[in-house]
């Protein structure tokens, strides 16, 4: 099974954090605030699409609202498979980083 | 309450196309939400669009939902092809980028020029049934019976009011006719005087045009009689600007040239005749009516033909009328008449230049398309195997062609959209760069027609680019393509021939453009090297229009003596003179003149220049025979004149001009004057040979234009120091004297032909350079491809001991062969097509061998350079690598 890339991990975490309110706008906001990078909506959607393709995410359609010009949201949640992949990736990261002092120059 | 911010429409449209269907609704909804959360100006739309592009072309997206079907109907095939094409183009960004950039330039330039040509040359004038509108000229005796070009200054004369009356009354083909003169008029605005563009007209002008006033009425026929009070019709702009669009403006008084005029009408906003900025249409005053009735009047005439008459029929009728009038008025007998369609007249000055540039951009687009077609052909060679596999798996020729066309289509769409934007800027740029005011520019604009033109040009480009590669794609043979290597086969020979043909075409077209640019450079050099017959450096001119209080000869004489003295005392001034017509900065007129010759009295029309005694020394015009004017040549003395060498040659070719007599045939001045000297010729217009001209002593005979003189000041210091001091000296004599200053050198730089040449060199040179670069790239691509194709063979030969020099020579020889054929074709094209630009050139023939040879060498050298690199690569083929394929 393919391992998720860094940005994919961030998006999966973002979807988990947002719970039932995970969609394009909120995800982008969450990611931009917490990782201090600038993202385009297209980049977020690209990753969402990929993760959905891999089965890590699933989507459902929300209700249309006036402030979206009458368009419906596409809300995402992490599938059990996605959770498994994510927790494995995180523990891989943790175990690889354990004991390293990244703050000082000599590692 | 403010409406909530929304995503701009153009962004929504682009995103709607880009974002895949499954995510489109959510994506656009998110965008709307974003706009409401942040301020819309804080969103970088271009970045967002780039993001959407990367989403669109991401190959790892989730398959769409269950609603999606595999490509089946024709539209889904096209859609599939387009997506494939997008991906392929995305994979070779250099190729796609270069192609889109080239197409953008080509489509943008052609759209710019075509929309200008359309607005300026092709569209009917904005008057009802404008094809019936003509201008009528009186021909000078020399040109009577001929059909001179309307740009020929020497041939066309203004029309006296009396003759216009005769035409109006007797012209059976004319529904109406009118005469006008354009003048700057001074409008009193409180204490200030404002200059506005004016047209002094007879009532027939506006009637002939068929304009309806926005407010009030037009002038009536009976207003043309002497003794009618002063009236004015104002422009829409003046009405809005000065009267705030007040409908009560009718009947109010406007003071124009110190005379109160009653406002009787307001023109509609689109009325821009005779000039683009005309703000006031005035009836002639009585003095002018009387003046213009005489010989040598100077009205422009516009007329409306009766329905059903062609210009040629009307011309024949007017010729007959001219003969009848000649019998009644012998003075008119020598003059012919010329009718010109009004549209041709307004655009005659720019027609040649615009069409030339349109031709040039069309050639650039052709070359650009040829280049992209070439690149496609090269790519299709690289992809022969892929195409062969497709075919082997059952893809029809049509499907293969369709895949190709999809790529072309995508490129052209992008090029077209960007080209359209470029053309919007291009129009602005062109109008700003254009040396004169381009006529009818107020009608140039962005409208539906503009976008239709852009779309049409893009379609043409797509056809040009797409046809050849698509055709080739259908010709791929499965066996050949799948055979290892596939080089040396008949298919690749055919393709090579095609590539060579495209390169030859590119070289010939590029040569054509470069030669054109070269000819205009020669032309400009020639213009600037013209000897005007006097020294132009450090000469300042000040035009003086005499107010009515100086019209008495004694008052005028006193004024000019004072002016001469004051200006001469300005520090840095060497010499001062004055004249009616100062070369290169003045204007041309040729009043009726009688000349005494060996064959008796001859009548003609020649420039009569009324000058001060010191005029010749001030300008440095040489005396060839006899004497110059002296301060003693004044009223009461013996009537004298000077002639220039051209006039002496014309009337007294084998004899001495001195002692012969000339006469100005005006009611105010018709005495015989004895010629006392012959002076050198000067050019009044840079591009026109000196014509016969004679001089009158100003203090004896102020001539036909006594109200107007030009002071000439020769100086030996910085113009920036002398000019203000000279102006001050003039103001010291009379602070209210209207004047304008100019350096004579500016007259050369400012002459229409010089400015046109500069402009054409700039634009045509840019286009030609672009064409040259594209052609060189084309040659390079062809050779590089050939070397790559033959690397196997070259490898064997090198392995067998062939010299590297030999290989180098062979490849370069091939480049030069393509180059020579292209050059030969280019020279033939230049020889045939050169005649089209003949009238725009000065002092150089369109087939000038030196220019063509120099450009030919330049092109040949560039091709040699372009051939060298592929040739070098050929010699560095590694025999071992090349043979590995076996």
Protein model, in words:
The complex is a heterodimer of chains A (107) and B (886). In chain A, helix 1 crosses helix 2 (24-35). Chain A is 53% helix and 9% strand. Chain A has helices at residues 6-18, 24-35, 41-54, 80-97; strands spanning 57-61, 74-78. Chain A has a two-stranded antiparallel ribbon. With 107 residues, chain A is mainly alpha-helical. Chain A has 4 helices and 2 strands, in the order H-H-H-E-E-H. With 886 residues, chain B is α+β, with helices and mostly antiparallel strands. Helix content of chain B is 51%, strand content 16%. In chain B, the strands form 3 sheets. In chain B, strands 1, 2, 3, 4, 5, 6, 7, 8, 9, 10 and 11 form an 11-stranded mixed sheet that branches. In chain B, strands 14, 15, 16, 17, 18, 19, 20 and 21 form an 8-stranded mixed sheet that branches. Chain B has a 4-stranded antiparallel sheet with strand order 13-22-12-23. In chain B, strand 14 and strand 15 (600-605) form a beta hairpin. Chain B starts with 8 loop residues before the first helix and ends with a helix. Residues 65-71 and 484-490 of chain B have low confidence and may be disordered. Chain A binds chain B through residues 23-25, 28-29, 39-43, 45-46, 49-50, 52-53, 61, 64, 67-69, 71-74, and chain B through 4, 6, 19-20, 23, 25-34, 36-37, 47-55, 58, 60-63.
Q: What are the key terms here?
A:
heterodimer, A: about 110 residues, mainly alpha, two-stranded antiparallel sheet, 4 helices, 2 strands, B: alpha+beta
Return the structural class of chain B. Answer: alpha+beta
How much of the sequence lies in strands of chain A comes to 5-15%
Main sheet overview of chain B: 11 strands, mixed
Q: Helix count of chain A?
A: 4
Strand content of chain B: 15-25%
Radius of gyration of chain A: 16 Å
Most extensive protein-chain contact, per-chain counts: A-B, 25 and 31 residues
Q: What gap, in angstroms, lies between the N and C termini of chain A?
A: 31 Å
Oligomer: heterodimer
Mean pLDDT of chain A: 87
Structural class of chain A: mainly alpha
Largest sheet of chain A: 2 strands, antiparallel
